C-alpha cells in the first residue's frame, strides 16, 4: 500500500527504544531539551544524572559533529525530571530526515510534554549582535519546501495527523514567559525574538543567499531545529526554541568575515 521508504522507524521501534530507556532510570521526564552546537554544557546542569551514550541506545543514530557529545542525559533541573540530548543530528550528516528526528518521538513516548530546543545560528537581522539570544517565534523550513520533510512517508496516527498545522508551532505562552523572565533578569540588551531559517548545510551561506534569506523574513540561519519542531508538534508536544547568535551572516562583498564551525561551537 505504501512505497517502501525504509527511512524511518515504526511506532513499535520507537516504543521499544523508549521502554529500553525507561527500564533503566526512574526519571520520568516531562521536559525534553536539545543542546545546540557548543551548548552541550546545558546538560551538565542536570542533577542526579543517568546518562547513555547514543551508541548504546537501540535505534539511535550517532553524533558525528564536533561540539555534539552524543549523550542522552536524564536528571532533574530545579527538582523537575528532564531529559537532555547532548548533541543532535543534522541532515548534512547523511542520515535520512526521518531518522534524525527519531529522538522527538522517543521524547514523546518517554512522557515528555514540552520540548526546549537550542541552536547556534548566524544572525541575518542587522540589529543583532554576536551573543544575542533569539527566542524563535517561527521558522522557514527550506529543506521541507523541497520535499525533504520528516513527515514524508506513511503516517502513523498514533503519533499524529497526516496534515499537521504549523501556524502555532512555537508556543506563544512559553515565548511570553521567556521574554518576561529575561527582562526580570536584566537580559533586555541581548534578548531578541525572530524567525529561524533552516538550511540543509553543511556549507555556510553565500552573500547572495544571506541577502535572499533576509528579504524572505529570516532573522537567523542555521542547519537544524525546524525538522525537530515539525515532528515534536506532529506528536502534540509544546515547543520552545532559542538561537544563540554565534556569528553575523556576511551580507557585504567588502567584508573580510568568514563563517566557521570553530567560532560557532566555541573551539
Ligand atoms: O544547529 P546546531 O546544532 O546548533 O548547529 C549549528 O552549528 C553548525 C555549524 O557550525 C550547524 O550544524 C548549525 O546548525
Ligand atoms: N547555516 C548556518 N548555520 C550556522 N550555525 C551557526 N552559524 C551559522 C550560519 O551562519 N549559517
UniProtKB/TrEMBL annotation:
Q: Which GO terms of type biological process are on file?
A: purine ribonucleoside salvage
| InterPro entries registered for this protein in UniProt | Nucleoside_phosphorylase_d, Nucleoside_phosphorylase_sf, Pur_Nuc_Pase_Ino/Guo-sp, Purine_phosphorylase
Question: What are the Nucleoside phosphorylase domain coordinates in residue numbering?
Answer: 31-263
Which controlled-vocabulary keywords does the entry list? Glycosyltransferase, Purine salvage, Transferase
Q: What residues bind phosphate, as annotated?
A: 37, 68, 88-90, 120, 224
Q: Does the keyword Ribonucleoprotein apply?
A: no
- What EC designation does it have? 2.4.2.1
Gene3D superfamilies membership: Nucleoside phosphorylase domain
Q: Which domain of life is it from?
A: Eukaryota
Where is a purine D-ribonucleoside bound in this sequence? 205, 247
* Catalysed transformations (reactions): inosine + phosphate = alpha-D-ribose 1-phosphate + hypoxanthine; 2'-deoxyinosine + phosphate = 2-deoxy-alpha-D-ribose 1-phosphate + hypoxanthine; guanosine + phosphate = alpha-D-ribose 1-phosphate + guanine; 2'-deoxyguanosine + phosphate = 2-deoxy-alpha-D-ribose 1-phosphate + guanine
A GO cellular component term found in this entry reads: cytoplasm
**Family annotation (SUPFAM superfamilies):** Purine and uridine phosphorylases
Name the Gene Ontology molecular function terms of this record. purine-nucleoside phosphorylase activity
Supply the Pfam families for this chain: PNP_UDP_1 (PF01048)
Q: Write out the pathway annotation from the protein's UniProt entry.
A: Purine metabolism; purine nucleoside salvage
Report the sequence similarity comment from the record.
Answer: Belongs to the PNP/MTAP phosphorylase family.
Q: What does this protein do?
A: Catalyzes the phosphorolytic breakdown of the N-glycosidic bond in the beta-(deoxy)ribonucleoside molecules, with the formation of the corresponding free purine bases and pentose-1-phosphate. Preferentially acts on 6-oxopurine nucleosides including inosine and guanosine. The purine nucleoside phosphorylases catalyze the phosphorolytic breakdown of the N-glycosidic bond in the beta-(deoxy)ribonucleoside molecules, with the formation of the corresponding free purine bases and pentose-1-phosphate.
Provide the protein name: Purine nucleoside phosphorylase
Amino acid at each position: 500500500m505504501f512505497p517502501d521508504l525504509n527511512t524511518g522507524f515504526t511506532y513499535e521501534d520507537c516504543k521499544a527504544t523508549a521502554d529500553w530507556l525507561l527500564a533503566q532510570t526512574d526519571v520520568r521526564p516531562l521536559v525534553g531539551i536539545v543542546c545546540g552546537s557548543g551548548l552541550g554544557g546545558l546538560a551538565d546542569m542536570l542533577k542526579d544524572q543517568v546518562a547513555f551514550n547514543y551508541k548504546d541506545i537501540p535505534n539511535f543514530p550517532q553524533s558525528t559533529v564536533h561540539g555534539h557529545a552524543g549523550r542522552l542525559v536524564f536528571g532533574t533541573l530545579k527538582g523537575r525530571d528532564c531529559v537532555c540530548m547532548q548533541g543532535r543530528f543534522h541532515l548534512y550528516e547523511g542520515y535520512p530526515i526521518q531518522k534524525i528526528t527519531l529522538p522527538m518521538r522517543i521524547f514523546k513516548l518517554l512522557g515528555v510534554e514540552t520540548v526546549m530546543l537550542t541552536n547556534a545560528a548566524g544572525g541575518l537581522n542587522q540589529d543583532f549582535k554576536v551573543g544575542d539570544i533569539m527566542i524563535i517565534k517561527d521558522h522557514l523550513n527550506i529543506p521541507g519546501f523541497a520535499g525533504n520533510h520528516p513527515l514524508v512517508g506513511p503516517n502513523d496516527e498514533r503519533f499524529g495527523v497526516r496534515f499537521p498545522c504549523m501556524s502555532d508551532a512555537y508556543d506563544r505562552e512559553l515565548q511570553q514567559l521567556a521574554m518576561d523572565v529575561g527582562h526580570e533578569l536584566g537580559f533586555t540588551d541581548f534578548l531578541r525574538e525572530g524567525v529561524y531559517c533552516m538550511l540543509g548545510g553543511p556549507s555556510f551561506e553565500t552573500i547572495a543567499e544571506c541577502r535572499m534569506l533576509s528579504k524572505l523574513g529570516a532573522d537567523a540561519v542555521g542547519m537544524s531545529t525546524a525538522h525537530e519542531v515539525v515532528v515534536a508538534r506532529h506528536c502534540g508536544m509544546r515547543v520552545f526554541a532559542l538561537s544563540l547568535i554565534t556569528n553575523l551572516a556576511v551580507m557585504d562583498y567588502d567584508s573580510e568575515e568568514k563563517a566557521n564551525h570553530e567560532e560557532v561551537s566555541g573551539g
